[in-house]
Specification:
alpha/beta, Rossmann fold, nine-stranded mixed beta sheet, four-stranded antiparallel beta sheet, binds S-adenosylmethionine, MeTrfase_RsmB-F_NOP2_cat, 5-cytosine rRNA methyltransferase NSUN4, methyltransferase
């Protein structure tokens, strides 16, 4: 039995607390978890990008946004370990061209015309017109691309044709690998030279590892990725594209890349640090494995710290005079230039290592027919997606250890 006057006491208490009494009949328990609408991660990503990138890219943002929401373009990285000449001919018949050798050819023309101009000037000034023309100064990229052996076919600007899946040769080796052609720029920037010891710190699923192997120049290649499942994909790519003998010279590991500076210091001539990032294009298009999911907020916020630690490990793993390329597929300056600036600062103050940023602005000129570059990067280069050249985003910055 209820205490006498119980309800009256309760009503008085409710009034004292400033609450209006509600009949028990109308009370209900809100079920937040099941009834509140779930905002898709892709929408959260787009909202986040609209807020930040519209400030960074200003009038360029609407076009970049539209491109990221459309189907991306692919390049066909030619596999030099199969009958590459035949495959190249077939791709050319489809109207595709190798953007790397096109750039090298263009560079050579510029160099030659610059040489002719210099010779003309010299003759006009009457300062020794008898000798041979002054050889044109070869740009670092020309040297890199000529020796790199990397060939990647793309359809011309504005052409949205797609490549058919690659086919295997008689030994089961696939003819080409379809990838975002802008992903090759960090590899070209690394400029692997014969017998270089190379580290690919965050290698899976392996597009850039494959490109590094196409150079035929790696004396030794260490391909690492912390994720065991993604490392399996890396193995799969190596098995599908690289003959056994070459594959055996690649060491695949699954360490936390942040520890690499402790594992193998001052060892490598070239280090690629292709870090995990907000993968902007994926984040606005795919719900699965989207870093903008609410439950991954902390992980997303911690990305610049992880990127900085990985870049520091890469710098420590490089030999003196060694070169490190840092890359992301994000437009975010917080994950790009800021990480590079912080790393340079930490290398100097905590490790007494001077790190230099190499100028890659000639990439913009050489590859302008294939990619859209952003001209407003403080450090490094950034490929912007565009409907007529829908590659990227791809940020890359080259550092040299003094
Ligand atoms: C952008 S992806 C690399 C793509 C790869 N370079 C390619 O071209 O195919 C970043 C990779 O970093 C790996 N990763 C994340 N944290 C890492 C860590 N602490 N150490 C090493 N790898 C890490 C992820 O598993 C992911 O595969």
């Amino acid at each position: 039995m209820a205490a006498p006057g119980g309800r009256a006491v309760l009503l008085r208490r409710v009034r004292v607390l400033g609450l209006s009494p509600v009949s028990r009949r109308y009370l209900y328990k809100k079920k937040w978890a099941t009834t509140s609408p779930r905002i898709p991660a892709t929408r959260l990503a787009l909202h986040h990008f609209d807020t930040t990138y519209s400030l960074q890219l200003q009038e360029l943002w609407p076009a970049v946004r539209a491109a990221m929401l459309c189907e991306q373009k692919y390049g066909a990285l030619l596999n030099n370990f199969t009958s590459a000449d035949l495959v190249a001919q077939q791709l050319e018949l489809l109207g595709a061209t190798d953007f790397v050798s096109e750039a090298a050819r263009r560079d050579q023309c510029w160099q030659e015309s610059a040489g002719v101009e210099a010779e003309k000037r010299k003759t006009l000034e009457g300062s020794g017109g008898d000798g041979p023309a002054v050889p044109a100064e070869t740009s670092p990229l020309l040297r890199a691309s000529v020796s790199s052996n990397i060939k990647c076919y793309t359809f011309p600007r504005g052409d949205i044709s797609r490549f058919r899946p690659a086919w295997p040769d008689s030994l089961g080796i696939l003819s080409y690998y379809l990838m975002d052609a802008a992903s090759l720029l960090p590899v070209l920037a690394l400029n692997v030279k014969p017998d270089d010891l190379v580290l690919d710190l965050c290698a899976a699923p392996g597009g850039k590892t494959l490109a590094l192997l196409q150079t035929g120049a790696c004396g030794y290649l260490a391909a690492n990725d912390v994720s065991i499942s993604r490392t399996k994909r890396l193995y799969h790519i190596l098995n599908s594209y690289i003959p056994k003998k070459v594959r055996e010279a690649v060491s695949v590991t699954s360490h936390d890349g942040r520890d690499w500076g402790e594992l193998q210091r001052t060892t490598f001539h070239k280090v690629l640090v292709d870090v995990p990032c907000t993968t902007d294009r994926h984040s606005v298009m795919e719900e699965e494995n989207n870093i903008f999911h609410k439950i991954r907020t902390k992980e997303r916020q911690m990305l610049p710290m992880l990127q900085l630690q990985l870049l520091m490990a890469g710098i420590l793993a490089a030999k003196p005079e060694g070169e490190v390329v840092y890359s992301t597929c994000s437009l975010s300056p917080l994950q790009n230039e800021h990480v590079v600036e912080r790393a340079i600062d930490i290398a100097e103050t905590q490790f007494n290592i001077t790190v230099h940023v190499e100028d890659l602005s000639h990439f913009r000129m050489l590859f302008q027919d294939t990619f859209c570059f952003f001209s407003g990067c403080r450090l490094g280069e950034l490929v912007l997606p565009h409907l007529t050249a829908n590659f990227g985003p791809m940020y890359f910055c080259k550092l040299r250890r003094e």
